[in-house]
Amino acid sequence: MKRVGNLYLTIAEPDNLRLAFVKASIGKQDRREVVAFRENLDQNLANLHHHLLSGDVHVGDYRIFTVHDPKERLICAASFRERVLHHAIMNICEPVLDRYAIYDSWACRTGKGQRAAVERAGEFAGHYQWYLKLDIRKYFDSIDHETLLELLSRRFKDDELLDLFRRIIATYSTEPGKGLPIGNLVSQHLANFYLGLLDHWIREERRISGYLRYMDDFALFSDSRETLKIELAEITLFLKECLRLNLKDNIQLNRTACGVPFLGMRVYPHTVRLSPRSRNRFSRKLREYEKRSAMGEWSERELAERVNSLVEFTRIADSHGFRNDVISETTKKHSRLSF
Fold first, then answer.
1. Is the pLDDT of residue 330 over 70?
2. CA 83 – CA 64 distance, rounded (Å)
3. pLDDT in tens, 162-199
4. Distance CA 73, CA 285 (A)
5. Is the pLDDT score of 120 beyond 70?
């Protein structure tokens, strides 16, 4: 695949910046910073255009906070101006990254996503007897800056664009030269791209056809347990030597008939069930959402949007009875909750 050039000026074009503003505003039109940006839209976009062309656009303006869902994560939410910049970059660069991705890379890609990834895992579970489920230890915190930039230089040849990527990557670190922020649009795409090297190696060098990945969660399938044990050793070495990453200790090698743990689901050859953790999370979140709404933190509309998102996640699995039981129990206690 040839390197792509002449993209930086396209990112800075006024029409692309205006499109980026529209995308960054979706679902957030009433937020204070969005309203303020829109009130002086032409000047704000002109300023962003000017700073891009002069090479001194400011990056790293984050609001940092911690969430616990289910484990503790540090979130770096970019300012609205910077979110516009991120959308402008990805409007132009995402197609290049997407062309590099293999078919069975399912995160951060148009037309793919969590539900499709689970369905694909179900297909593999129906074709193979064994699975090997892996994920990366502290993935975002462990991404190596120089390795990522070297991989990007294989896809892009604009010096200005590569410098912009370098500056964005350098806005966050867990230790010198390590880490990407969670909650940053460009980081999400770059984190998914980073493991593309692993994808191609598994498919093209190791010749494993039963393989899929959703960000740093990935699984291999085979009819041979011994084959998967060999691949585990090879993958461990490849990750350390080529990407400077380590696997989590919760390595799972088992028969597909026992169900593949993947993205909060237990995927069987002919059905999908919610994992115990996902069932508990659904019940807990439903109670939490109603409590926050009752305290006046959310409007009825905001409550409905969050509940609908929570319910939609459970629809990936065969969970109709469980979902109705929890909703029925919750609605008996909280009259404000409506589905």
1. no
2. 15
3. 999 999 999 999 999 999 999 999 999 999 999 999 99
4. 17
5. yes
Cα three-residue angle 49-58-41, rounded to 5 degrees: 45
Indicate the length of the chain as a whole number: 339
- Asked whether the predicted pLDDT for residue 307 surpasses 90, the reply is no
Q: Which pairs from 306-309 meet CB under 8 Å and 24+ separation?
A: 307/337, 307/339
Omega cis (within 30) before 70: yes
| Whole-number pLDDT of residue 295 | 81
**Are 142 and 46 in contact, with CB atoms under 8 Å apart?**
no
Over its C-alpha atoms, the chain yields an Rg (Å, rounded) of: 22
Q: Which of 4, 26, 142 is nearest to 84 (CA)?
A: 26
Three-state SS letters, 212-235:
EEECCEEEEEECCHHHHHHHHHHH
Residue 275 to residues 26, 268, 319, 325, Cα–Cα distance (Å): 32, 12, 11, 16
Q: Is 111 exposed, middle or buried (0-12, 13-18, 19+ CB in 10 A)?
A: exposed
Structure tokens at 215: 């960000």
Whether the CB-CB separation of 260 and 267 falls below 8 Å is answered with: yes
CA atoms of 199 and 214, how far apart (whole Å): 11
CA distance 201 to 269: 27
Tell me, what amino acid is at 40?
Answer: N
Q: How many CB atoms lie within 10 A of CB 27?
A: 9
282 vs 268, more confident: 268
pLDDT digits (tens, 9 = 90+) for 8-39: 999 999 999 999 999 999 988 889 999 999 99
How many Cβ atoms are within 10 Å of 62's Cβ, its own excluded?
17
